[in-house]
Amino acid sequence: PHTHMARRSLWLQRLSATHGVAATLKSVQSPMPGKIVRVLVAAGQAVSEGEALVVMEAMKMEHTMKAPADGVVEAVHGKEGDVIGQRALLISFEEES
To answer: How far is CA 24 from CA 8, 60, 62, in A?
Structure first.
Protein backbone atom coordinates (compact mmCIF):
# COMPACT_ATOMS: atom_id res chain seq x y z
CA PRO A 1 0.00 0.00 0.00
CA HIS A 2 2.79 2.47 0.83
CA THR A 3 4.48 1.91 -2.52
CA HIS A 4 1.24 2.69 -4.39
CA MET A 5 0.75 5.95 -2.46
CA ALA A 6 4.39 6.95 -2.97
CA ARG A 7 4.10 6.23 -6.69
CA ARG A 8 0.85 8.21 -6.93
CA SER A 9 2.40 11.14 -5.04
CA LEU A 10 5.41 11.16 -7.38
CA TRP A 11 3.09 10.96 -10.40
CA LEU A 12 1.07 13.93 -9.10
CA GLN A 13 4.25 15.96 -8.55
CA ARG A 14 5.40 15.23 -12.10
CA LEU A 15 1.95 16.00 -13.51
CA SER A 16 1.84 19.32 -11.67
CA ALA A 17 5.35 20.20 -12.80
CA THR A 18 4.69 19.44 -16.46
CA HIS A 19 0.98 20.03 -17.02
CA GLY A 20 -0.25 21.71 -13.86
CA VAL A 21 -0.63 25.37 -13.09
CA ALA A 22 -0.08 27.30 -16.28
CA ALA A 23 3.31 29.01 -16.20
CA THR A 24 1.93 32.21 -17.71
CA LEU A 25 0.39 35.11 -15.85
CA LYS A 26 -2.59 34.94 -18.20
CA SER A 27 -4.35 32.01 -16.51
CA VAL A 28 -4.36 29.09 -14.11
CA GLN A 29 -5.70 25.74 -15.36
CA SER A 30 -6.59 22.51 -13.61
CA PRO A 31 -3.84 19.88 -13.80
CA MET A 32 -6.39 17.03 -13.98
CA PRO A 33 -10.15 16.42 -13.92
CA GLY A 34 -11.73 17.12 -10.54
CA LYS A 35 -14.15 19.22 -8.55
CA ILE A 36 -13.78 22.80 -7.30
CA VAL A 37 -13.91 22.69 -3.49
CA ARG A 38 -13.10 26.33 -2.62
CA VAL A 39 -12.58 29.56 -4.54
CA LEU A 40 -10.30 31.84 -2.53
CA VAL A 41 -10.14 34.92 -4.79
CA ALA A 42 -12.50 37.22 -6.68
CA ALA A 43 -12.32 39.31 -9.86
CA GLY A 44 -10.36 42.52 -9.31
CA GLN A 45 -8.34 41.07 -6.43
CA ALA A 46 -4.56 41.58 -6.44
CA VAL A 47 -2.62 38.38 -5.73
CA SER A 48 1.02 37.60 -5.01
CA GLU A 49 3.09 34.81 -6.56
CA GLY A 50 2.39 31.56 -4.71
CA GLU A 51 -0.89 32.77 -3.20
CA ALA A 52 -3.66 30.15 -3.04
CA LEU A 53 -6.40 30.78 -5.62
CA VAL A 54 -8.58 27.67 -5.91
CA VAL A 55 -8.72 24.36 -4.05
CA MET A 56 -9.84 21.38 -6.12
CA GLU A 57 -10.37 17.74 -5.28
CA ALA A 58 -9.00 15.09 -7.62
CA MET A 59 -8.07 11.45 -7.04
CA LYS A 60 -9.50 11.74 -3.49
CA MET A 61 -6.92 14.41 -2.63
CA GLU A 62 -7.13 18.20 -2.36
CA HIS A 63 -4.90 20.27 -4.65
CA THR A 64 -4.35 24.02 -4.21
CA MET A 65 -3.85 26.02 -7.38
CA LYS A 66 -1.53 28.97 -6.73
CA ALA A 67 -0.74 32.21 -8.52
CA PRO A 68 2.20 31.74 -10.91
CA ALA A 69 3.22 35.40 -10.45
CA ASP A 70 1.99 38.69 -8.98
CA GLY A 71 -1.09 40.01 -10.77
CA VAL A 72 -4.74 41.00 -10.66
CA VAL A 73 -7.53 38.44 -11.10
CA GLU A 74 -9.60 39.28 -14.17
CA ALA A 75 -12.16 36.48 -13.77
CA VAL A 76 -12.89 33.31 -11.84
CA HIS A 77 -14.13 30.58 -14.19
CA GLY A 78 -16.24 28.19 -12.18
CA LYS A 79 -17.70 28.01 -8.71
CA GLU A 80 -17.53 25.73 -5.72
CA GLY A 81 -19.02 22.33 -6.53
CA ASP A 82 -18.33 22.52 -10.29
CA VAL A 83 -16.87 19.39 -11.88
CA ILE A 84 -14.07 20.36 -14.24
CA GLY A 85 -11.92 18.66 -16.84
CA GLN A 86 -8.16 18.53 -17.28
CA ARG A 87 -6.70 21.89 -18.31
CA ALA A 88 -9.99 23.64 -17.52
CA LEU A 89 -9.54 27.40 -17.17
CA LEU A 90 -9.91 28.31 -13.48
CA ILE A 91 -8.53 31.84 -13.14
CA SER A 92 -7.61 34.46 -15.73
CA PHE A 93 -5.49 37.50 -15.01
CA GLU A 94 -5.62 41.07 -16.30
CA GLU A 95 -3.11 41.88 -19.01
CA GLU A 96 -0.20 43.99 -17.77
CA SER A 97 -0.24 47.46 -19.27
So the answer is: 26, 27, 23
Cα 10 from chain centroid?
Answer: 18
* 30-86 tens-digit pLDDT: 999 999 999 999 999 999 999 999 999 998 899 999 998 899 999 999 999 999 999
Task: Give this prediction's pTM.
Answer: 0.72
Q: 3-state secondary structure string, the chain?
A: CHHHHHHHHHHHHHHHHHHCCCCCCCEEECCCCEEEEEECCCCCCEECCCCEEEEEEECCEEEEEECCCCEEEEEECCCCCCEECCCCEEEEECCCC
Closest CA to 30 of 97, 84, 93: 84
